[in-house]
Amino acid sequence: MHTMIRVKDLPKSIEFYTKALGMTVLRRIEVPEGEYTLVFVGYGDEESEATIELTYNWGKDNYEIGTGFGHLAIGVDNVADTCDHVRLLGGKVTREAGPVKFGKTTIAFIEDPDGYKVELIQLKDAIDEMREAKARAATVTGAPA
Q1: How many whole angstroms separate alpha carbon 115 and alpha carbon 58?
Q2: Which of 16, 65, 75, 125 has a beta carbon 3.0–4.6 Å from 105's, enabling a disulfide?
Q3: pLDDT digits (tens, 9 = 90+) for 71-128
Q4: pLDDT at 136
Q5: CB 13 within 8 A of CB 54
Q6: Using 50, 70 and 90 to split pLDDT, how confident is the model at 143?
């Protein structure tokens, strides 16, 4: 399935998610009668992978992100390298790569062109942490890890 975010400059948003984060445009839907365009981006097949739906409402160029939205999270092979790549493309890094507070996993935060926060998570660290948590839970509940 997908997470939808509204964007004010569709080409700039597509460029950010494809060039800075390495996603692919999976499909594009133009809806003239509704005056909007949907672009789905992601890392794999929509039937098995989560995607991001970029929604552009024609002529609307200002949104408030609001206080209820936190961030999107993307797993990457190397958080520091990804921050450097985002910066090289003119993107904004709001928290440099480093361990999460009270944890071991390396994370960073960047912003997309509309100001949405994107957390970059070191994939190997996150997978190791998930496996450790599952093993601890299995020990407590007796369920297989």
Answers
A1: 19
A2: 125
A3: 999 999 999 999 999 999 999 999 999 998 877 899 999 999 999 999 999 999 888 8
A4: 82
A5: yes
A6: low
- Please give the model's pTM, rounded to 2 decimal places: 0.79
Contact of 46 with 24, CB cutoff 8 Å:
no
Pairing of strands 36-42, 2-6: unpaired
- The catalytic site residues sit at 119
Rounded to 5 degrees, φ, ψ at 26 are: -90, -35
Query: Which contacts (CB < 8 Å, 24+ apart) does range 123-127 have?
Result: 123/75, 123/76, 123/77, 124/77, 126/75
Contact 17, 40 (CB under 8 A): no
